[in-house]
Amino acid sequence: MADFVSPIIGVIGGFFLGWFSHRLTRSRDAETRRLDAEAAKRQRKLNFLGFLARWKAELRTEHSDNFIHRYSGHVALLRVEALAVKDDFIASGEEGFDTLVLDLSSLQNAQINRHPSKSPRDVIGESLDALIEFVERN
Questions:
Q1: Closest of 66, 94, 97, 67 to residue 81, by C-alpha
Q2: Which of 36, 66, 105, 106 is deepest in the core (most CB within 10 A)?
Q3: Which residues lie closer than 8 Å to 74 by C-beta, 6 or more apart?
């Protein structure tokens, strides 16, 4: 009888250890995927902030008054860059990202050039600063 019980206990132990090892591996893989997703989200956010910071630097150092031409060139890039991070803000429950991107990307010539108390640089810069602040805060 002892010869019969020993192999059964070995088989049961083998199945249990295999199952336990599988559970630990799944848990580790899930944690790795979560950490990778968080790292990717951080990188997308940093890339977007880098784009906005470059635009802001160009805006400050632009010597020409041809802001409309420069602005319209950046708007298309803004929309593409914003698409890369948009879902990250939606997933975290933060509202306002779309509104800020729309505010910045839809400034009209009259709003930029004919503001009574602000230069074109300031009009664009204020919308840009609001978006940068939102992204940094969230």
A1: 97
A2: 105
A3: 55, 58
Structure token digits, residue 11: 């088989």
Other residues' Cβ atoms within 10 Å of the Cβ of residue 97: 19
Q: How far apart are CA 86 and CA 71, in angstroms?
A: 21
Residue corresponding to tokens 């160009």: 58
DSSP letters spanning 44-79:
HHHHHHHHHHHHHHHHHH--SS-HHHHHHHHHHHHH
Angle at 118 between CA 114 and CA 123, to 5 degrees: 85
As given in the structure block, the two tokens for residue 93 are: 């429950």
Quick one: tokens of 19?
A: 């199952």
Whole-Å CA distances, 33 to 9, 24, 76, 125: 36, 14, 32, 38
Contact at 8 Å (CB) between 100 and 130? yes
**Rounded Cα gap, residues 13 and 18, in angstroms:** 8
Rounded to 10 deg, the angle between the 2-61 and 67-91 helix axes is: 160
Report the pLDDT value the prediction gives residue 129, as an integer from 0 to 100. Answer: 93
Coil vs helix vs strand at 132 = helix
Task: Quote the pLDDT of residue 54.
Answer: 92
Quick one: which H or E segment has residue 33? helix 2-61
